[in-house]
Amino acid sequence: MARMSNFIYCINAEKVSANNGQFGGVNAIGVLSALTPEFVPGTFSFSIIFSILDIDISGNNTIQVVFLEQGEEKVLVDSGIITIPPITDAIDIGLPDEYKGVDMSMDLRNVIFETEGLYNTKVYFNGNLLAENPIYVKGKR
Amino acid sequence: MNSNLVTVSNLAESATNNIEKKSYNNIGVAGSITFALFAGMTILKCPTTGEIVPKNDYSKPSYIQYIDLEEKKGLFSVENNKIIDLMKVDNLNKIKKMARFENDWNGTGGSAFSEGAINLFIEIIEMLDKQPGIAPTGRNSLLMQYELDNKSLLAFEVSENKTEKVYVPEGDYSMAQMELFTENVGFRIKESVENFYGFK
Amino acid sequence: MDLNNITDSEILYRVVKKSDPDGFIDGKPTAALFMDKSGVSVDRDGGRTEEDIIENFKWRFRKKEDYKTAVKISAGECRNIETFPNPIGNKKNQYHAEIWDSEDKQAISFFKAIRLAQLCKEVQI
Q1: Domain map of chain B by residue range?
Q2: In this complex, do C27 and A112 lie within 8 Å of one another by their Cβ atoms?
Q3: Which has the closest alpha carbon to C13: C100, C95, C81?
Q4: B33 and B11 in contact (C-beta within 8 Å)?
Q5: Which of A30, A96, A121, B169 has its CA 20 to 30 A from that of B12?
Q6: CATH topology of domain A3-137
Q7: B95-153 pLDDT, tens per residue?
Q8: Residue C26: its chain A contacts at CB < 8 A?
């Protein structure tokens, strides 16, 4: 059953190429334990990186990322439902199925924060809420 | 906080980091340990500008234990999973939808997109590590756009035969710079984006 | 309403249809909304209230329920960035107007389209 792993908030998700020119990876640049725009209200850009394991990547899957203030209904960022096409050329080194999956990254740019407080990223996989990851937002000044 | 990466040393003996020193002098021991840990976690960002501190300006605090991955080994280990850039997937899906637009798709005479234009858009999106926000225009071109928190804007109008670039520093339109590309469009865009984000 | 002249204070409204995806990025209108092959079609307010204007849009696109939202900008703001609000009108719609790049050139340049996007606001109805 699909599960999330490695959820990280960071300043930038840097894509890297593997040495053999095949699948690359992603570096988390500037890991964040809180989001700190200069001012609140203000805007802030950041990235998220996460892995979804124990999934079948040979078929279509969907992912949706929603970012909102904890406890509020107003959504700040909604990726919409993104269809991930089948991945048929993955290198198989014989990992157990429950540890096979995909790493994903996403930039959330110019997010407008009107108040300080706890915010949440919800990740939906194939229509089901997979995980929620809160983070505190506080203006620097 | 990731406890795998942080070890708290004896601050009195090994306080070589400036932030750590200041904190230890000004507040009580328990408070200084907490503050030093937090300072360590945010040390990658300059406290006033918010910019990422370049590698050679960064003095490693003594109380944080780093696990250095030899680059080669590190990259071999990422072959196990496929990395997906969700924005890239979303952009490619949008372009595939655009390929199915018919004339007057926007109700104001917008032209259908030519095969050559669609292929060019896909090629450019595939090349970019940092994905733009995109929007189709009514004149067989694609808007690609980046904006920073300081209101700096980098935008491209990509057509089959030419690409126009506009750069606006910090929201100041009087200082806008414009450029026209007709060759190596993908590379020129990629280079502009890398400069815009300071990757180069 | 003067059919031959658009005053600076008059507001120009540009429809965004549901079938016209991605006219917004990060919740803000984009230059793509103002990038057509020729002049950009808008409706001038002609002294009408905003509610009446939006109701008219919704009625015009009622068949496919295609009205999504609208963006607005004043004629004065258009002139300040050297675009040309043109009171063209047509047989079906006296409020029809177009924003041109200049008096002699219809298709709006990329830079001016970016300026228009920066200045316009989404209608909140």
Answers
A1: 11-79, 86-197
A2: yes
A3: C95
A4: yes
A5: A30
A6: Immunoglobulin-like (2.60.40)
A7: 999 999 988 888 777 889 999 999 999 999 999 989 999 999 999 999 999 999 899 99
A8: 109-111
Yes or no, beta carbons of B79 and A91 under 8 Å apart: yes
> Locate tokens 């998700």: which residue?
A13
C26 close contact with A: CB closer than 8 A: yes
- A28: closest CA of chain C, how far (Å): 22
Q: State the burial class of residue A3 (Cβ atoms within 10 Å of its Cβ: 0-12, 13-18, 19+).
A: middle
Dist CA C51 CA C123 (whole Å): 10
CA B86 to chain A, closest CA, distance in angstroms equals 5
Q: Which of B192, B50, B41, B57 is nearest to B129 (CA)?
A: B192
Q: Number of helices and strands (H, E) in chain B?
A: 7, 6
Radius of gyration of chain A (CA): 16
Q: Which residues of B touch C30 (CB under 8 A)?
A: 133, 135, 143, 145
pLDDT in tens, A70-116: 887 789 999 989 988 888 776 678 888 888 888 999 999 999 999 99
Cβ of residue B110 closer than 8 Å to a chain C Cβ? yes
Q: Is B90 in the C-facing interface, judged by CB distances under 8 Å?
A: no
CA C6 to chain centre: 13
Q: Does the pTM of the predicted model rise above 0.80? A: no
Per-residue pLDDT of chain C (125 residues; tens, 9 = 90+): 787 889 999 999 999 888 776 788 888 899 999 999 999 999 999 899 999 999 999 998 888 788 889 999 999 999 999 999 999 888 888 899 999 999 999 999 999 999 999 999 999 87
- Domain boundaries, given as residue ranges, for chain A: 3-137
- Of the candidates B56, B96, B137, the residue with the CA atom closest to the CA atom of residue A85: B96
